[in-house]
Every structure is written in C-alpha cells, then in structure tokens.
Amino acid sequence: MAYYLAPISTGLGDLIVSLPALQALINTGVPTYLISRTPMQEGLESRITGLAGMIRENTFEPEKLSADDVFYNLRNHPLQTDYIWGSENFEKTYPGFKITDVLKGICADFGISANYETLTPLPFENRADCADVVVLVPGSAGIVKCWPSFHWLDLADRLIKSGHKVVVVGQPDRSPIVKDCLESGLVFVETPTMVDALDALSSARCVVAGDTGLMHVAIHQNVPTVALFRYNVMFKRDYPHVRSLSAPLCHQACIDIEYSSVPNKVIKYDSFEENEHKIYWETWTCTKENWSERCMASIQPEQVHRAIDEVTMSLVGR
Predict the structure, then answer these.
(1) At how many degrees (to 10) do helices 194-202 and 213-220 cross?
(2) How confident is the model at residue 98 (pLDDT cuts 50, 70, 90)?
(3) How far is CA 34 from the centre of its chain?
(4) Rounded to whole angstroms, how far apart are CA atoms 316 and 24?
(5) What pLDDT does 318 receive?
(6) Which CATH architecture has domain 128-251+286-314?
(7) What angle do CA 241, 111, 221 make, to 5 degrees?
(8) What are the boundaries of each domain within the chain?
(9) CA dihedral 231, 284, 167, 274 (to 10 degrees)
C-alpha cells in the first residue's frame, strides 16, 4: 500500500500550499510519494521529512497502481475544476474563500487530515548571510504580479536608513526586477538550488515578496512575511506571522486577459516541460507599459515598511 499526491497546480507555490496535505499522508506511516508536475516543484524533496520518493507526472501511471494504493490528485475536485478562483461566480458561491479554504475543502472530501492551522516547517540549515536580515524577493514567474523596481529600491533605502540589513534573493537572469535591484547596488544572496533558497528564507528576520512561490516558502517556514498581491488575493494566507497588502482592481483590459485562458479544467499534465499551457502567469502581461500606471504600483513603500515593522515586532518573544 502507498499514497501518491499531486499538488493543486504546477508552480512552486502550489506545491508549498499543498504540503500540509502531503505531510498528513506521510504522518499516517504509509509510504507517500510526491507527484511533481513541473521542474518548479523539484528540489525540496530531500527536506520533506518522511517522503518515500518523487515521481514526475508525465511518467506516472495511476492505472497501474495496486488496489490498495491511493492517488490523491488535488486538481481533480469540483472546487478546482468548476470555478475560476477569484471570479465573480466563485465569490458568489464561496464568499471569502482563499487557497487555504479551498485546500481544506478538498482535503476533507478526500479524507486527508491536513493541518492548515499550524504549519510544520521543513528542516533547514541556518545561513549567517541571512540572519537578522530583511530578505527581498522581487521576482515572479508572472511579471503582472511584480512590484515595480523603483518601489523595491525605495523600500530598501527606507529599511537601511532605519537600521535594517537588506539582501535580495532571486534570479536576475530571469527577472528584470531582480536585475534592476542588483544593478542599483543591493546585496545579492545567491541561491542556485531550491534548498539554498529554503535555507536563506528560513534564516531571515523578515521576507518581503510578491505573490510567488518563495513567498509561500517563507510563510510555510513560519518566517515573518509581508506579501504583496494584485487585486485577486486568492493565495492570501492568514497567519499571525503574515501581513498582506493588495493593489486595487486591475484595468478591465487586464482582467479580460486574465480570465480568458485559466486552465482550471485541466486535471493532469502529460508534458513535464515549462510550456505556456502550464506556466499560466507567463502567458500574459499588463496592458499598461508605464510601470507607474500599473495596479501594483499603487502599493506604497511606506505601507510595506510599516507592515515589516508591525509583523516583526508582533512576534518578538514568541
């Protein structure tokens, strides 16, 4: 007998928000395997305590499992397939629902006793270069979710002047926002592997990030986190160590693009490559070329600075 679990979708963040379900299955003592859906979900398996192994979805054949085995495909549920999260129809049917509520519902129906109230961090190694440091994560696979470079630099300046140490984590070769920050002189902490990123974020005093996978890593690790969202806050997670700020409603042209190709009906991915059908956030960009006109620019650096001070001070002594 064995358990197999495929995360809610294809990104790193989708794996991280699915971890409580995976950990619950592991805790039963039954050998439990992670079904990875893209390369973005690989690299942390050595830190998932008790995991029996990992199998790529394009090689996984559930029809060949034994009668005692169970495959939990978190996408194969009406909460996923029948709705576009954050849409008017979804909000009308499930008012106030966020990703944690969705996963609680799916896990309850699948009989998985996942604990989303108290997160169980992955083991990590402390990094001296991130200790007592505010780690900025400016990048994202979707440029529409990014905070402008000039706001990141303004925030860094404010933090440094108020006595904080600041570093940047990310991929300058893939993110123009990360590249801008580094070219402006901010200190870069290299994290060539997912384990390196896990260790860096887990060691931080606070993490500031957009709606991206590393933000969810920081939250899962119980690190004080300030998360920056577009108007659609489906992936907002309410924990004492998290503060979330959101932009106003997008321009209608952006919303029309956003909802035109959401792959909510897809429950299985036959290819393992990072193609446009899987990396949804990379398939479109903001309709406003001027960054100052983009919705994310409405979140001000002083708001983020206050949120950092609030979340770090609120957890002192805990």
Answers:
(1) 50
(2) very high
(3) 17
(4) 29
(5) 45
(6) 3-Layer(aba) Sandwich (3.40)
(7) 20
(8) 3-110, 128-251+286-314
(9) 120
Residue 246 pLDDT more than 50? yes
- Give this prediction's pTM: 0.94
Q: What are the angstrom distances between the C-alpha of 95 and each of 17, 89, 233?
A: 20, 10, 13
Strands 242-246 and 165-168: what pairing? unpaired
Contacts of residue 70, Cβ cutoff 8 Å, sequence gap at least 6: 1, 2, 3, 4
Residue 272 has pLDDT above 90, yes or no: no
Q: What is the pLDDT of residues 165-193, one digit of tens each?
A: 999 999 999 899 999 999 999 999 999 99
User: Taking the CB of residue 97, how many other CB atoms lie within 10 A of it?
Assistant: 18
Q: HSE, CB side, 13 Å, CA atoms: give it for residue 281.
A: 18
Q: What tokens were used for 90?
A: 């979804």
CA 26/CA 114 separation, integer angstroms: 11
| φ, ψ dihedrals at 266, nearest 5° | -75, 130
d(CA 88, CA 189): 41
Burial of residue 242 (CB within 10 Å: 0-12, 13-18, 19+) is: buried
